[in-house]
């Protein structure tokens, strides 16, 4: 794994200031990336220290804290549940173009909200995920030996590779890699012969095509979502 979320993105995740789409993408990346897990743990510890150091004005008293703890323990003891074993998280599956792919359990809520797959020439497939966010979230499947038209971005594009690999002018990306692009990037993602790719895509603004006939989608400055 060669590509990771930026430190600021990991800090937002650690402090709970991240949106749900990027939060799920980062959580999925963390499952297989010990480097980023260590950074998140560090940022969580720093956030806790900052909270303690921020002062005692308006802080809960020791007696109030003890009462909250007692009430919490009473609630736990009265629950009709077995806490002897942690609940196992299981992966889910998606099917596209006659193939079935395992998707990490962290993304199951997204899979439950998937729309119908749309096909672009039988080579690129997208399924929009309906969530209450100011961004476009989708699963993107690119068949083998395909190049997406070169484009840039009005906002940010975050991509998490779930299966296979793809490459562009800036590198080659494999399962677990997290890539974030903006308007400074012009790229034409492509899959190699014999290698397809399934990704989670998060776009804050439409794509802007920069070459070829695809530029027709840029009319009126709207760009295009996949």
Automatic annotation (TrEMBL):
Name the record gives this protein: ChrR-like cupin domain-containing protein
NCBIfam families named in the record: anti_sig_ChrR (TIGR02451)
One matching Pfam family: Cupin_7
Annotated ChrR-like cupin domain residues: 137-200
Residues forming coiled coils: none
InterPro entries: Anti-sigma_ChrR, Anti_sigma_zinc_sf, ChrR-like_cupin_dom, RmlC-like_jellyroll, RmlC_Cupin_sf
